[in-house]
């Protein structure tokens, strides 16, 4: 009896000691993680830019997946930037070369840690954010859509082998080379083949029927399973926050893995990451919203497009002066040469726009303006969406009757939607911050447009209030006075010179006075226009 009691006491004591040790270890681990995350956050909070509204030499488009960034890239940026101005293989970090001459545009799914490879003071960052629920839906749908294209093959082995042999046309970048699809698509592809093989080995009558395209487990991984998979926790949930913070599993920073591990283990530490992401978002040149697509596009054209056009006009003006004086123009990046001939003569991949020798951005229909840019954007996006819809329809036929759509999303249970919100707490808060920034951008742009008109009116009023007769009378008096002053000066300075020299100087002075009299009003108006 006593031995049994001693045994029970020993077990209880052992359990108590083990629990105490675990508690101490857990507390120490939390403190370690907290210090790690705090240290990273402190080193990541850069000083605010003096003028974040000014476009710098390099434009970095941080493309958060499934936010509509592809349309901006093809329908805006490729019309503004010639292909030789785009950083090589922008979507492929391993071959990224920011030192390339004329590298002025980088568009990539890589995270903010790419800034460690760029000159921060000469780089402007833009991005687009999307409602977290819609972004998770879209990520799930696109992963399935791309993976379903491989179902034309008899088995997974055949699909994998053929994929390894085929490379994209025109030396492009495959979806399977781009983060995060290089992780999500192969994973979903394997799952689709597994489910198809399972259906073949079962009687078709045994297959469960469902009207919910997001819950057809016989055909495709259900959404409620997808959001709970480890890969979804690692890449998708709070993905926008981690991407803006520079902490994805594709980060360039050596400490990113440990910081991500700590934040996932202790969710309260995510607030440090959120603060960094908010700060970086606030310092960006432009932040768009997928849901406010039309207004976001218009704002992008006015905020970014206008400055790009102005930059090229300035560069071309410098180029013309350099050509005349046979001087070389150095690059905006250190230790590299600026090939101005590329800037003048290059075209983008679709020959849709070019930088002319006069500095204007031109299309097939003439000089590019913000209005023309928006017109071309609407045409381009319509064509792009039609092509995407055809490709999507073709892919989803292979997993019929599953068919993703806005109407089909309405059938997803509320409990799944609430779980998505809970799993993306940081992204929900970051999106709210993006909405506030967007409202500020709207206000800033409106104030800027209002300021332009009064200035133009003031210039015209100033010129018009002094008509040509008033100007000529005033300038005639100035010209006569100038002649008198010059004549006195000449008599004192060139008494020892021959008459020919004195006559020459008087002729030049008279000519100068005549020019002042004749062109004075237009010269002054030019100065006011520059103001």
TrEMBL record:
Record's keyword terms, sorted: Glycoprotein, Membrane, Signal, Transferase, Transmembrane, Transmembrane helix
Topology of this chain in the membrane: Single-pass membrane protein
GO cellular component, one term: membrane
Compositionally biased region (Polar residues): 355-367
Single GO term (MF): heparan sulfate 6-sulfotransferase activity
Region (Disordered): 326-367
Keyword Transit peptide belongs to the record: no
Top-level taxon in the UniProt lineage: Eukaryota
Signal peptide (residue range): 1-23
Subcellular location: Membrane
Main location: membrane
Protein name according to UniProt: Sulfotransferase
Lineage, opening ranks: Eukaryota, Viridiplantae, Streptophyta, Embryophyta, Tracheophyta
């Amino acid at each position: 009896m006593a031995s049994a009691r001693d045994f029970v006491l020993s077990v209880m004591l052992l359990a108590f000691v083990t629990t105490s040790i675990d508690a101490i270890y857990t507390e120490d681990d939390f403190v370690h993680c907290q210090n790690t995350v705090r240290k990273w956050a402190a080193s990541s909070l850069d000083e605010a830019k003096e003028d974040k509204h000014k476009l710098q030499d390099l434009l970095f488009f941080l493309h958060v997946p499934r936010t509509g960034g592809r349309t901006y890239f093809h329908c805006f940026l490729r019309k503004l930037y010639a292909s030789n101005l785009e950083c090589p293989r922008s979507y492929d970090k391993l071959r990224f070369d920011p030192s390339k001459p004329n590298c002025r545009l980088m568009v990539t799914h890589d995270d903010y840690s790419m800034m460690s490879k760029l000159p921060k003071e000469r780089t402007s960052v833009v991005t687009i954010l999307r409602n977290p629920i819609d972004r998770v839906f879209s990520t799930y749908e696109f992963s399935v859509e791309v993976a379903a294209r491989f179902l034309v093959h008899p088995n997974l082995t055949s699909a994998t082998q053929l994929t390894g042999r085929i490379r994209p046309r025109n030396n492009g970048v495959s979806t399977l080379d781009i983060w995060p699809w290089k992780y999500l698509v192969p994973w979903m592809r394997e799952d689709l083949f597994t489910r198809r093989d399972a259906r073949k080995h079962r009687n078709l009558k045994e297959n469960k029927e469902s009207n919910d395209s997001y819950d057809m487990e016989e055909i495709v991984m259900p959404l409620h399973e997808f959001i709970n998979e480890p890969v979804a926790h690692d890449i998708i949930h709070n993905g926008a926050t981690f991407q803006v913070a520079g902490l994805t599993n594709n980060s360039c920073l050596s400490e990113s893995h440990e910081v991500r591990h700590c934040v996932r283990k202790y969710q309260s530490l995510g607030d440090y990451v959120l603060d960094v992401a908010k700060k970086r978002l606030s310092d960006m040149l432009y932040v768009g919203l997928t849901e406010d697509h039309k207004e976001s596009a218009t704002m992008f054209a006015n905020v970014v497009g206008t400055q790009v056009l102005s930059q090229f006009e300035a560069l071309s003006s410098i180029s013309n002066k350099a050509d005349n004086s046979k001087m070389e123009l150095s690059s905006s990046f250190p230790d590299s040469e600026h090939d101005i001939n590329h800037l003048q003569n290059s075209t983008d991949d679709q020959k849709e726009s070019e930088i002319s020798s006069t500095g204007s951005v031109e299309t097939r229909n003439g000089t590019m303006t913000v209005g023309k840019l928006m017109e071309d954007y609407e045409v381009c996006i319509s064509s792009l969406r039609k092509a995407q819809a055809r490709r999507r329809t073709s892919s989803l036929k292979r997993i019929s009757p599953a068919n993703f759509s806005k109407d089909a999303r309405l059938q997803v249970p509320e409990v799944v939607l609430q779980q998505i919100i809970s799993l993306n707490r940081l992204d929900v808060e970051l999106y709210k911050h993006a909405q506030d920034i967007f409202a500020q951008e709207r206000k800033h742009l409106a104030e800027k447009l209002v300021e332009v008109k009064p200035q133009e009116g003031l210039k015209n009023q100033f010129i018009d209030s002094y008509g040509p007769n008033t100007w000529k009378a005033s300038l005639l008096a100035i010209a006569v006075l100038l002649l008198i002053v010059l004549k006195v000066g000449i008599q004192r300075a060139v008494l020892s010179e021959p008459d020919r020299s004195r006559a020459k100087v008087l002729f030049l002075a008279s000519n100068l006075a005549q020019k002042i009299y004749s062109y004075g009003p237009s010269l002054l108006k030019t100065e006011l226009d520059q103001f």
